[in-house]
Specification:
Layout lengths: L1 E7 L5 E8 L5 H14 L10 E4 L3 H10 L4 E4 L1 H14 L4 H15 L4 H13 L3 H11 L8 H4 L11 H4 L2 H5 L8 H25 L10 H4 L8 H19 L13 H6 L4 H10 L51 H18 L3 H30 L29 H21 L1
Parallel strand pairs: 3-4
Antiparallel strand pairs: 1-2
Helix pairs in contact: 1-2, 3-4, 4-5, 12-14, 12-15
Bound molecules: zinc ion (ZN).
Zinc ion (ZN) binds next to helix 14.
């Protein structure tokens, strides 16, 4: 069998981190993978992964405590639900009830707060027989911190809940293999596929450089553009809109060293509590607020303890101005309304695919283009420099061609009559030919 492990790039894409042929899913097979990774990738001073997301294979569950003792083992939530479903099937729960229980199980797994978790647990237990309640409590109870959202959204797991990422690699890897191939030939084929995928990923990373979403506060992101991936910038910009809004409405509660926000813990990106400082100062977001894993063409990570740091920067492009004359660009509610809407325009796009997405893209581009043109028009009006368009007088007078120059004189009556006569003659000649 082929055991696949995967990781997440700075652009949010999946990459193959290891491929290993094994005789079984026993502990030994995973020990080998972790030992190899530690020898070739995560050797000192490069830290090992902080979270590993796995299915319910016994081998990996046994291997993590010895192979990667300081990493958190998180369980793929999809596999947990599948396992419980299997048990319900085996115990003869009727189809309709199983369907209902499946949805209750998902609500339970996705509980985002402890209050919700307890409520969802009670609701689930009401539909179960005592045997299965005991099974949930005894078998899954001690593992709850490894798959329930209220816990897993506090792990540095880059937003992962399932091992769908490594599963998604299966079509690409198993299609090219068959049982007749020697190990060497199979490895060669896999190597080619992995290399092709790596090339795709570097193209994707390169595309992330040099462009910034138009709707962003350029000033705030000027130090990040071209430095970190657009994927990371998009994540920060959502939080940035929130903090601007809170500061504008004076509803922001400052928190000196936040350690609870998802964006900070799961992704290593600054949450609103950290973004408040540059926002209040009218300064750009410094790079020291971003975990180096998001850097474009970055170095291998060597730091283990990371926290966002705020340094004030003065932009070289802005000339020094007396403080009272400086208007903080982020504290304009109308402007923020525009940037928030702009972000929503982009987010709405994410939910669409195929033809719907193409249609949406065209509509969004036209709408934005229209706005830019409108701004140019208004600018013209503002300055009173634009000459009014020549008003075309209505009348029976005709132009030589339907698309002729506006300044060209119109046809005289005689010319028009001759023109019409020629046309009639040509038409008759055409008909005669037919
Ligand atoms: Zn926070």
């Amino acid at each position: 069998m082929l055991i696949v492990t995967a990781g997440i790039t700075n652009c949010g894409s999946t990459f193959v981190s290891s491929l290993s042929f094994a005789r079984s899913e026993a502990k030994l097979s995973f020990d080998f993978i972790f030992d190899s990774l530690k020898k070739h990738v995560f050797y000192d001073p490069h830290p090992v992964p902080r979270v590993v997301v796995s299915d319910q294979a016994a081998g990996i569950k046994a291997s993590i405590p010895t192979g990667l003792p300081n990493s958190i083992l998180q369980f793929c939530d999809w596999y947990v639900v599948k396992n419980v479903e299997k048990r319900l099937l085996d115990k003869g729960y009727p189809k309709e009830l199983r369907k209902e229980l499946k949805s209750l199980l998902w609500t339970f797994v996705k509980s985002k707060t402890h209050t919700l978790l307890e409520g969802n647990r009670t609701e689930l237990h009401l539909k179960l027989r005592p045997d299965e309640i005991r099974y949930l409590q005894e078998y899954w109870g001690p593992k709850e911190t490894q798959f329930i959202r209220v816990y897993t959204c506090k792990y540095p797991n880059l937003g992962a809940h399932s091992n769908q990422r490594s599963e998604s690699l299966h079509p690409g890897t198993t299609d090219i293999l068959n049982k007749q191939l020697s190990l060497e030939a199979a490895s060669r084929r896999l190597g080619k596929t992995v290399q092709a995928r790596l090339r795709e990923l570097s193209v994707q990373e390169a595309q992330s450089a040099g462009k910034l979403p138009r709707t962003l506060d350029r000033r705030a992101f000027v130090l990040l553009a071209d430095t970190i991936s657009i994927y990371a910038i998009n994540k920060i910009s959502t939080e940035w809109e929130i903090i601007k809004d809170e500061i504008n409405r004076a509803s922001h509660q400052s928190k000196a060293a936040c350690s609870s926000c998802e964006l900070l813990i799961r992704y290593g990106l600054p949450c609103k509590h950290y973004l408040a400082s540059p926002c209040q100062d009218g300064a750009p977001i410094p790079r020291s607020m971003i975990h180096p894993r998001w850097c474009l063409n970055g170095e291998p990570i060597q730091i283990t303890r990371w926290a966002p740091l705020y340094h004030t920067y003065t932009l070289p492009m802005s000339p020094p101005r007396p403080p009272q004359a400086t208007q903080n660009p982020y504290l304009s509610p109308r402007r923020n309304e525009i940037t928030t809407l702009g972000l929503q325009v982009l987010e709405a796009r994410e939910g669409l695919t195929g033809y719907a997405r193409t249609r949406y893209d065209t509509a969004a581009t036209n709408a934005q283009q229209g706005l830019v043109e409108y701004a140019q028009e208004l600018q013209g009006d503002d300055l009173h420099t634009r000459m009014p368009d020549i008003v075309k007088k209505s009348g029976w007078n005709r132009q030589f061609k339907s698309h002729d120059k506006i300044k060209k004189r119109l046809m005289t009556g005689a010319e028009a009559a001759e023109h019409d006569a020629n046309h009639r003659e040509q038409a008759t000649a055409r008909e005669a030919r037919l």
